């Protein structure tokens, strides 16, 4: 009996393949186990548990149709089974090769019910699913989601990978990091759930549960991966629900439920993986061999005996010798961007992109189509003349005033205590808005002497001006006419300011667990006791206590938690200090949507709590802040330039900047598109484009992930070169090496007389392209060293089919370049640095599957395939001479060939031909210990 197991990488975030194989070896010692992976960098290839290795090329080079047929051919043997440890491969195989009785993975229909973030299986399992939102939504909506979940968010992929984020800056960084591996529409944000994590590993065959165990995590890595755990039986009620789900879906294969039991007792399902966890062998060692049970059920064998073993396991790192004939490739050159491996070196995201065959992310909108543009905006824009200079701040007629009236109406009649709304002057020091607020009986909140005097000039009486800022003691005594209430930022400031007559002295509070530079830290017992002592010395006069926290960056429910805590601390302070009359001030950073939907509806409950615990409260000041100002003004800006990036995304350069929108990095702003030639104004939706400001700062980015209204689709026309029919017979030539004859296909030895070289038109077009390439190389060699190969070239132009002949002015615009172009350009760049470089020709040997995949890809692109003569290929690289030694640089893979390991195993070098005609090389020359013959092919092995 034979079992193929894919996904055998054993890095810090391992695949389960080696663990599955180790468990099967314990259950069936005579079983033949074949390890499958898609990169020679997969360290699990060298585990001695595998009898054989089936190493494929990375997913971006595999012909999917041919590979699916090969998998089915393997399974044609009635004693052969396949277990996959790769999420994306499972989804692909379920569609391309399944269902098959010996392909031990769930059906496509079953996988539909386990897809993240919906996890529709949760209903049958009796579990809740954490709230989530697609990353394709506009940033305005994503920001709202994060606020409502207190900025404790996971940026996740539908397949694997997660980044925790606790601010808008971290959310953007997480989307950028995950976007290296996955498409934007495969990403989503999910609310974090605090609680106890546990997993259930299970196996089933044709809808019948064959085994399941609970894994309680005990030690986690920094990225949350299990390093030690306790294994226990599954609760009967949970086991029955799991069995019901597996029967309902006809599940075949393995799986893992990842759950959290929240502190309130609610149970959440946040992952249902259609594969065993990476630590599955730890479960086996604890007495339950789930991989063995799965194979036994599929092969109709007697179930392996389970043993009574310790209930805990731990992971220990150890070293093994590399498998003979399967060398580990050298590191890629550090001067290259390099491929982002993600969880696995096999680049599963590449498989996902090929299967999905979708382009750019959908252009979803953050506002529904039926939401009209506010009237105030239309009227303000209609008044703008064509020659209006921008950037310009537009007053939205009645926008701010309407907000004042709405808030006043919502709080009217509430209390006791008396509610006094205050306008934050620092948020928007706009004269007409402040005058309107004063006329409606609002207060003014200021932080400086200038703001205080400004408010007085606009008519605010001092008794309706409140001060709240860290520099207050410095200027307070110099004022003529004292404000009503002053909230000092520290106990020391309070002590310095109590000498001012005519004010109600107060202090700003900083509740425990909050990170802030403002307010008295209540979690410091010395600060708390000093505050009590200071308040006690104020006698019978009223005292003010303030809570100012930015709700939009703290989170809405977290703000209410802090507000309730502040009421509790105020009760303790007033009782201990003997304060009988109290003024409270709650405010800070309310988004208008949150203020209307959450703060105002919950205000009566807050008032009830205040009255019940603080009977001495005379007045509650509330400061809406941005909840008023965001509806009062708009910024008008003009697009100066549109740029198209190589990936097709657009960048708009505008004349506004972060000087006009200083909070752009903390909060996305609504964007209204105003065409110059029409009145069709509408909200800008989500996309992959950006808006850059007009000042010379890297941080001057006003908007990310928007949908540009001006898009140029990449051209679809391509000039195909003719394809040459494949040979039906082939001749061989014998190359002498060490007294033996190495047989190499004559078709490859005579494929090209000399190494490839890009053409030059002898005109400005090619001269400009060469100047660009040499300048690029000069830049990177200046950073990484003159002897560092030009790895930037293949980082920018990946190896793949390209047309011949090709000229400099054409190759710089290509999406991919073949080995001849990469080697020829790299050689010329190295020579421009003054290095002794030449292009050389190679014959390499790969697997039949690799050759078939390349044959199909090159043919599909209309490119010649005569460089392939299965299992050999023709290849070109660069050679650098160092005395008598020749070092071979492979630009297609951004690494040096090793004269030891690269002469055996997959991709081994069979023969080398160097000329040295342009550099006047002379013999003797050696590649490692092999002596090269200039102008002729030199065999690298004694036998073939």
Short description:
By secondary structure, the chain is α/β, with parallel strands linked by helices. Helix content is 30%, strand content 24%. The protein contains 28 helices and 42 strands.
Radius of gyration: 35 Å
Q: Describe the biggest sheet?
A: 8 strands, parallel, barrel
Structure summary, number of beta strands: 42
Low-confidence stretches: 337-343, 358-369, 710-730
Classify the beta-strand content into a percent band: 15-25%
State the share of residues found in helices, binned by percent.
Answer: 25-40%
Assign the structural class, choosing from mainly alpha, mainly beta, alpha/beta, alpha+beta, or little secondary structure. Answer: alpha/beta
Bulk shape: globular
